[in-house]
Amino acid sequence: MLDRSTPSPGQKRARLREIERRLRHAVEPASLRWLGLALVIVTLGGGAASLAPLALKAVVDRLAGPQATGTSLGALAGLVGLYVAALLFQRLCEQIQAYAYARGEQRLVRRFGLLAYTHMLILPASFHQDHKSGGLAQSLAQGLLGLRLILTHAALTVAPVVVQIVVAGVVLGSVFGPSMGLVLLAALLAYCAVFTWGVFRLHGAVKGVSSAQIDVGGATADGLMNVEAIKAYTAERRFARRYDALLAATEDQWRVFLRLRLQNGLAVALVFAAAVAGVHLIAGRQVADGAMTIGAFVLVNTYLLQLVRPLETLGFAIRDIGQGLAYLDTIGAILDETPEPGSELPEARSAKPPPLPAELVFEDVDFGFGDRDTLQAISFRAAPGALIGIVGPSGAGKSSLLRLVLRFNEPTRGRVLFDGQPLGELPLRSLREQIALVSQDTILFNDTIGANIALAAEDADEDAITQAAARARLSEFLADLPDGLNTLVGERGLKLSGGERQRVSIARAALKNARLVILDEPTAALDPATERAIWQAMSGLSQGATTLVVTHRLSTVAEADEILVLERGRIVERGKHVELLALGGLYARLWRTQASGAFRSAATFDDDALASSF
Ligand SMILES: Nc1ncnc2c1ncn2[C@@H]1O[C@H](COP(=O)(O)OP(=O)(O)OP(=O)(O)O)[C@@H](O)[C@H]1O
């Protein structure tokens, strides 16, 4: 499971380092140029904003002073012009910085999003089995939001605010002496203390919100993906109740977060009031003593606001950056996950494999999910071009065996050799490029039939796709569709029947021209006539590729070069069909059962168990 606990400081540092490493990869000249430009303009604008009050002071002093009545329009225009120019320059900077920043941010977020998404794709299948896809999508969205929060404040808030604070502090300190400086310093320290306290308290609350939102994201996708099952079992209310419980948990987490944020905001307001009181008392006293002009009093007031507002903004920025870091922490935990083994091996220079069928050997292989032994002491050899049938009761470990060949899982003992080379030494990509898979549950992408078939070969032209579809006996079906190959299959392919989905999956494998074909119940959803036709087509699939077939229909593998009979993760019988019948063991019993009736012929080994469960 994703690590939901609060990470230790060491873990946090490691995750931040990982994010920083990824960000460095994500940064490219274009985004750097835009962000750099934004930073420069923001700083210039901040400087202009800080100096504008000096121009205002000059105007006020002139108008409140003894020479006010004799001020010429030209002199007044000069002073006002200076003030207006500073303000205008600041506004212009704001517009340009917003544009430049948005361009840089978009590019960086796009690159970071791509890196994070690609990383998720190369994480082991076991990782994905342990996580809800909706939750992962939510983590990614939060990560991008976190990155935006940090970038926005780092580029648009921190830099100008620091400039404004420094300028305002220097002007006030030098013009109004040490007592004013002390009050301002005390206010500055109080702000820093309040915000640091807030950031620490809010971090845990943001983590709580983030993980509750991930649960909601997971439940949303889970429910919507299984909407027909929910309808069929009239479970809408039950699911709505469960969903509401998750939303309530999220609301609770938000409540904690909002309460802490409110407390923080109130503390800031108190510091602000104290600073205003202190500064105005000192300045008012100086005006009363005749040591300060009205213009200077206005200047103090303006600078105070200019000092306090940026300070507050800075504080809020720090708080948001804390929130952004907490969001990034979640995606950081995912980026911390190790990609599937073999994905890091470099591809061989001459990546083109020989056109011959592959040889596959299992040497005394054990495998288990967690502590459960799923496969034990599996040994067999699939000679180049051989057809190996794998049969056995439900849950015997047949699909698990196939998963080891694709390296979706790794053996706990023993070796699997592909063309004599241990799988662990082969780059994952080149291994998988040589294998075609027709899996047990065919889930299609929400795209056209043609695009779904072309998953096997990105650059395949329409002719090749049409031929592959014909070999999977899809031609007639496609001819009936007004849009043919361009027909959209809907979410997970649900607009097609189970058999049609299965045939699209078979067409994919046919298009791939692989050296090893893995078929996991490839025809379970087909009627016997279509199954026979497809088998004829499949015997020509990939020009005699080595083939592993898992099936419950024993007739499917009667022609196999070797049949492995699996029971409770072990090979309990092996041989050709006739040999196994002669053996009179499990295989022969199952064959007799299937041969004894039309219903049985298409049934699975578990029919008795199924029947008795009603
Ligand atoms: N991701 C997983 N995590 C934990 N256990 C699993 C996982 N996948 C499968 N199993 C368990 O491993 C065992 C073997 O499953 P597998 O899918 O290989 O059986 P099978 O022989 O292909 O069954 P069937 O004929 O019903 O498809 C089963 O007991 C199953 O519950």
CATH topology of the largest domain: ABC transporter transmembrane region fold
What is the string of helix and strand elements? Answer: HHHHHHHHEEEHEEHEHHHHEHEEEHHHH
Bin the strand percentage. Answer: 5-15%
Tally of helical segments: 19
Total number of distinct structural domains: 3
CATH architecture of the largest domain: Up-down Bundle
Main sheet properties:
6 strands, mixed
Report mean pLDDT, rounded to a whole number: 82
Strands in their spatial order, largest beta sheet? 6-7-8-3-9-10
Write down the overall geometry: elongated
Organism: Brevundimonas staleyi
Membrane topology: Multi-pass membrane protein
Transmembrane segments: 34-56, 68-89, 109-128, 149-176, 182-200, 265-284, 290-308
Main location: membrane
Please characterize this protein's 3D structure.
The chain has about 625 residues and is of the alpha/beta class. The chain is elongated and about 120 Å long. The protein folds into 3 domains: about 10-335, ABC transporter type 1, transmembrane domain (ABC transporter transmembrane region fold); about 355-435 and about 515-535 and about 545-614, 3-Layer(aba) Sandwich (Rossmann fold), CATH 3.40.50; about 435-515, P-loop containing nucleotide triphosphate hydrolases (Rossmann fold, 3-Layer(aba) Sandwich), CATH 3.40.50. It has helices at about 10-25, 30-65, 75-120, 125-130, 135-225, 225-230, 235-290, 295-335, 400-405, 430-435, 450-455, 460-470, 475-480, 500-510, 530-540, 575-585, 585-595, 600, 605-610; strands spanning about 360-370, 370-380, 385-390, 415-420, 420, 435-440, 515-520, 545-550, 560-565, 570-575. α1 (about 10-25) crosses α8 (about 295-335), α2 (about 30-65) runs antiparallel to α8 (about 295-335) and α5 packs across α8 (about 295-335). Bound molecules: adenosine-5'-triphosphate. Adenosine-5'-triphosphate binds near residues 396, 398, 399 and 440.
